[in-house]
């Protein structure tokens, strides 16, 4: 952060929301941090996780799918909402990924204004083109990190509009656990999904 000063550092590792303890360590280490909660519809999230696992570990099947992936989605967003409920309002912003990809400029202007970044056309244009970033590619060879390295996206890393799922129907293959789906519906509605 000292090397970046006066610019702000951005940390986006998904591991930061894997436990309450991780979030509390983050809050303790960075008491003035702001938190951008990027959400995604539970069914498209489940589909993406399945595609990622099939790509990274061909033939791998998670026990209880698609329910275990959905349970993880519920648990993670509940954890984030509990954590952000204790933050002052100016330190937390929630946005839906679908909105950012389908209404990019307006969403980026809103996010930039919240961050205190001048939302001028040049800044928004740069934000709208992550493919121009030095980070729009695979990390160092041999790092052992597979993360979200989606080869399809990295071949042509240009954000594109996405499908907006207009319902909250269980994903294909759902075979039970009505209480989990009721929790999913509750969390999805709290996050602004229909």
Shape: globular
Q: Largest sheet, described in full?
A: 2 strands, parallel
CATH architectural label? 3-Layer(aba) Sandwich
- Uncertain residue segments: none
Strand content: 5-15%
Q: What is the number of beta strands?
A: 2
How many helices in DSSP terms? 8
- Tell me the domain tally: 1
For the largest sheet, list the strands in their spatial order.
Answer: 1-2
> In terms of structural class, how would the helical and strand content be classed?
mainly alpha
- Secondary-structure element string: HEHHEHHHHH
| N- and C-termini, Cα separation | 39 Å
- CATH class reads Alpha Beta
- Please state the average pLDDT score: 86
CATH topology: Rossmann fold
Helical amount? 40-55%
By CATH's scheme, which homologous superfamily applies? P-loop containing nucleotide triphosphate hydrolases
């Amino acid at each position: 952060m000292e090397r970046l000063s006066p610019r702000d550092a951005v940390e986006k590792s998904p591991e930061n929301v894997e436990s309450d303890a991780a979030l509390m360590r983050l809050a303790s280490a960075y008491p003035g941090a702001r938190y951008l909660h990027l959400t995604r519809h539970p069914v498209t999230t489940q589909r993406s996780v399945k595609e990622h696992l099939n790509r990274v570990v061909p033939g791998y099947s998670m026990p209880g799918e698609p329910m275990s992936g959905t349970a993880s989605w519920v648990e993670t967003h509940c954890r984030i909402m509990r954590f952000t409920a204790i933050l002052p309002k100016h330190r937390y912003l929630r946005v839906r990924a679908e909105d950012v990809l389908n209404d990019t400029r307006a969403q980026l202007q809103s996010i930039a204004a919240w961050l205190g970044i001048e939302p001028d056309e040049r800044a928004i244009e740069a934000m709208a083109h992550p493919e121009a970033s030095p980070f729009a590619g695979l990390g160092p060879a041999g790092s052992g990190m597979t993360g979200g390295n989606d080869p399809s996206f990295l071949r042509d890393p240009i954000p594109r509009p996405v499908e907006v799922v207009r319902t909250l129907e269980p994903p294909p293959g759902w075979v039970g656990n009505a209480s989990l789906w009721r929790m999913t519906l509750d969390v999805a509605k709290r996050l602004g999904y229909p």
